[in-house]
Amino acid sequence: MKLYQGMGPNSYRVRIFLREKGIDVPMVEVDFAKGEHKAPVFLELNSLGQIPVLELDDGAIVTESVAICRYFEETHPEPPLFGSDAVSRAKVEMWNRRAELVIFGTIGNVALHSDALFKDRLTQFPAFAETERQAVPRKWAWLDQELADGRPFLAGESFSVADITAGVCGWLSEIFGMEIPADLKNVQRWNERVRGRPSWNA
Amino acid sequence: MKLYQGMGPNSYRVRIFLREKGIDVPMVEVDFAKGEHKAPVFLELNSLGQIPVLELDDGAIVTESVAICRYFEETHPEPPLFGSDAVSRAKVEMWNRRAELVIFGTIGNVALHSDALFKDRLTQFPAFAETERQAVPRKWAWLDQELADGRPFLAGESFSVADITAGVCGWLSEIFGMEIPADLKNVQRWNERVRGRPSWNA
Predict the structure, then answer these.
(1) Tens-place pLDDT, residues B161-182
(2) Looking at residue B28, what DSSP letter applies?
(3) Annotated domain spans of chain B
């Protein structure tokens, strides 16, 4: 088994997940800056030219960070990071998606449409990036309201993959100069709780 | 238990899923055109003002179509629509996400940035919509290549939630005047197979 990974938020999500599970997987570094993820040999693994990619011992390929995490959830159920019964599994799915669609998607649009890293890969619309950049604090403010009930983690009492996704959004938000607003006390408390975990050094 | 749902692709995905499982759930129609999903009483259920929403008998709320589907997968495991072992569960997750991120996301950008329905809800960038519209046939062509091995469904031999997501992309693509190109024989065959199922009338 090999995990092809490198810089960027999606590889980071998988590395944190593996650390939380205590799983060691041999890793192959894919150099994003050199464009190794767009090289023919890599496109054979993932036609989308994206990392991370998990290659199983029989050659089967799993792409998409959450799909890779779900594979390890199945093979190493403890501690559960996708919930432990029907309702909690639904809640984790819901919160992982809310984090992705509301927050990650908005930050992603800022990056894709403004950062030099992507200028040869798509038609950038800087005005769209700017509108999305202005929306980011509102997305965090929405999450702050949602966390006003004082629960420790996004999906409830237990840390889950949804906290990894949203925590990596906070990390990414900072990288692109959009720190979580200081007055959002509920998000700030949650963020400190999540990013204080040893897995964050993954 | 109640399912709040209405027009649009995400409610449709859940209705198809329930039909495939043979589950009857009482439904409450939310009139998107009248803006009922943005009314205060609805925002109490889902602060994002989006359908579908599942309300359980104890008042617990599940939002996000895939999270709702996952809840029913847990409570009604047969037939499995999210895979049946570690590898197939990972593959279904991978293909559901590829369908969402590659195809659904692109069509969604066309709709959000060009359709009158959304003009009061976000700043529309018509040039961005046009770039995304031109990209849609390339996304279907990518899927066509992926299906060139002749497998019947996206994640392999079995119909799954990934086929529902991608099939609804085909439906949505047509609504916005972007039919799947006729020369993409693998996608055409797959699309006929999927949309010929009785669940498609849901």
Answers:
(1) 999 999 999 999 999 999 999 9
(2) E
(3) 2-75, 86-201
Residue B165's H or E segment, with its range, is: helix B161-175
Is B74's CB within 8 Å of A97's CB? no
Q: B193 to chain A nearest CA, in Å? A: 24
- CB-CB contact of B10 with A94 (8 Å): no
CB contact under 8 A, A97 and B142: no
Q: Which of B74, B97, B125 sits opposite A66 (nearest CB)?
A: B97
Q: What is the mean pLDDT of each run of 10 residues along chain B (202 residues)?
A: 96 98 98 90 96 97 98 98 98 98 96 91 94 97 98 98 98 94 98 97 94
- State the nearest Cα–Cα gap between A47 and chain B, in angstroms: 8
Would you call B127 an interface residue with chain A, using a CB distance cutoff of 8 Å?
Answer: yes
- Asked if A97's CB is within 8 angstroms of B67's CB, the reply is yes
* Contact between A98 and B48 using a beta-carbon 8 Å cutoff: yes
Interchain pair B70, A56: CB under 8 A: no
Superfamily of domain B2-75: Glutaredoxin (3.40.30.10)
Give residue A105's identity as a one-letter amino acid code: G
Q: Contact at 8 Å (CB) between B160 and B95? A: yes
For every residue of A81-125, DSSP letters joined together read SS-SSHHHHHHHHHHHHHIIIIIIHHHHHHHHHH-GGGTTTS---
Chain-centre distance of CA B99, in angstroms?
9
**pLDDT per position as a tens digit, A112-163:** 999 998 898 899 999 999 999 999 999 999 999 999 999 999 999 999 999 9
Class of domain A86-201: mainly alpha
